[in-house]
Write a structure and sequence with these properties.
Shape: elongated
Strand content: 15-25%
Radius of gyration: 23 Å
Largest sheet: 5 strands, parallel
Distance between the termini: 65 Å
Low-confidence stretches: none
Order of helices and strands: EHEHEHEHEHEHEHEEHEHHH
Strand order of the largest sheet: 3-2-4-1-5
Helix content: 40-55%
């Protein structure tokens, strides 16, 4: 019989938040794949558990090379436990490749649910939680970051991002540029830790605050785009939305069709608005 791959959530800050099953899985796993073996050692010491299985590192740098080795262990009947530094494996952390490889081999995959920075930040943000989407980390390069933000400029669901503290001010400034200076957001810092902080406000104000320097693990929650409705969209707004999509890489025909669908308007009406704007600017159609 093949073994079982167990994805285990680990505390995002307070070790007391560790799920009860985590200790049992750590004690009984045949193999423990850890993003950082030193942090794993500190976690087991804090939980007061002894591991009996083989411990191997499994991080971004060796994920591709180590996955076949772990799949082989699973095919041999091993119970393999995957843990990352914080939160659930494969959510902006190592794990996806191993899960995909195990599924392909028809190996059982299960999970020990645990703390989640995404859900914790969302709940604390004060922003709508009925519909949301997780965008993970934005690209580091400014141009690519703007392009990614423009792709979701019209997204009406609440958006959740991870960000490094030294890039937070640039990211918030880019969000203010694309989403609007007054778009509501919340910066959640050091969740569940001693110096937990949730800073709420408009994106421009938050960018100015972050420019003074921020430390710790960061999760950013941003309100979705307002539902303006078809009747409220001016020709200028239609043209702006088409331009945003074009700058994100869409062809004009596709961008016009998408904006028309969003606005509930005929494609011809959006097309005419774009042509009129080009003509007024003295550019080619």
């Amino acid at each position: 019989m093949t073994g079982t791959l167990v994805l285990a959530g680990t505390p995002i800050g307070d070790v007391a938040d560790a799920p009860p099953r985590l200790a049992a899985e750590l004690e009984t796993a045949d193999v423990i794949a850890a993003e950082d073996t030193r942090r794993l050692r500190r976690l087991t010491q804090a939980l007061g558990v002894q591991t009996r299985g083989r411990v191997v590192s499994y991080f971004e740098g060796n994920e591709s090379a180590r996955t076949p080795e772990l799949v082989e262990a699973l095919e041999g009947g091993a119970r393999v436990l995957l843990v990352t530094d914080a939160g659930m494996p494969s959510v902006s952390d190592p794990g996806y490749r191993l899960v995909a490889a195990a599924v392909e081999k028809d190996i059982r995959v299960t999970a020990v649910p645990g703390p989640s920075a995404v859900l914790t930040a969302l709940a604390l943000s004060g922003l709508p939680v009925d519909r949301f989407c997780f965008e993970g980390f934005l690209p580091r390069k400014a141009g690519e970051r703007l392009g990614r933000l423009r792709e979701v400029a019209g997204e009406r669901r609440t958006l959740v991002y991870f960000e490094a503290p030294h890039r937070l001010d640039d990211t918030l400034a880019a969000m203010a540029e694309v989403f609007g200076a007054e778009r509501r957001a919340a910066v959640c810092r050091e969740l569940t830790k001693t110096y937990e902080e949730v800073k709420r406000g408009g994106l421009a104000d938050l960018a100015a605050w972050a420019a003074e320097g921020v430390r710790g693990e960061i999760t950013v929650v941003v309100a979705g785009a307002p539902d303006t409705g078809p009747a409220e969209l001016s020709a200028e707004e239609l043209v702006r939305r088409v331009r945003v999509r074009e700058e994100a890489g869409e062809r004009r025909k596709e961008a016009i069709a998408a904006v028309a669908a969003e606005a509930g308007l005929p494609k011809r009406e959006v097309f005419d608005a774009v042509v009129a704007a080009k003509t007024a600017a003295g550019g080619p159609r």
